[in-house]
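Input/output pair, single chain:
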Amino acid sequence: MSAQTEPLVQIKDLHKRFSISGDFLDQLKFRGGKLVREREVVHAINGVSLDVQRGEALCVVGESGCGKSTVARTVMGLLSPSAGTISYGGERIDNLSDRQILPYRRKMQMIFQNPYASLNPRMTIAQTLEEPVRFHNPKAPASEVRDKVHEVMQSVGIDPTWGKRFSHEFSGGQRQRISIARALAVDPEFIVADEPISALDVSIQAQVLNLMMDAQASRNLTYLFITHDLSVVEHFGTRVAVMYLGTLCELAPTKTLFATPRHPYTQALLSAIPRLETGRPAHIRLQGEVSTPVNLPTGCVFHGRCPHANERCSRDIPRLIATGDGGQVACHAVEEGRI
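Output:
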């Protein structure tokens, strides 16, 4: 595989499980007169494989609890995977020690969802932005660090004279601009954005989104963009990955996905987008109970709500197959030509 086609970030068969059984004593139960140990886990991610190409904005979408934010945090090393591998630039990074992964910390940065919680209230904005620059460039002179902070503040539309202020003196949109500036301060290649505009007013969302797009163009950034807002995806994304209950349902270029969604869950999601034009597809109302990540259904995780499900869907887990239009879909009905 050449350097041009090799993915910047590669996720292979990623699993993440969280125990909800407490400590050892909490797991001990009496069943039928015997002392047994019972453990329950949340299956947050179940065999997700994704390639993030250099320079693209790969959007991961799905309803709350589908595991998209867990994917983001696992890729960044904030969570350890239960199984699977994560590679950056062809090198595996999920099994590295804190010292070994340090060079990748500069290349990989994260923008968090809540701008009110992601900034230290005890630090001025200048201190917040200088901290990562000094950490990754310990020998850099103070004047060089200040110049870098001023440059990155101006690039996100923040007046450098505001550096003496604290985060509580800014609005949500301004705080998120500061968070973006903090991510850009170390000149990263790859940014994970975990629903960075969902906590902002609608009037501010477009400004922050356009700022991120401008930064991508000027700095050749690669994004893994986590969101539940499909209108944002249509405007921002290069490709879209649709998740349901910790599983990847469909992966396709943005235009292809919005024009011809293949998976029944993707079709239902897109039908819920409010649109003004006539002739749009009717809203698809899903039936059945929503399964939980604690007790995953057998077979396809969506089969209990899918109008096209048959006996095979409840038995066999579907695999991603190519659709011929640059996309992939995990659906027995599509594979068999039933839809």
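Residues 263-339 form one domain. The two ends are 35 Å apart (CA to CA).
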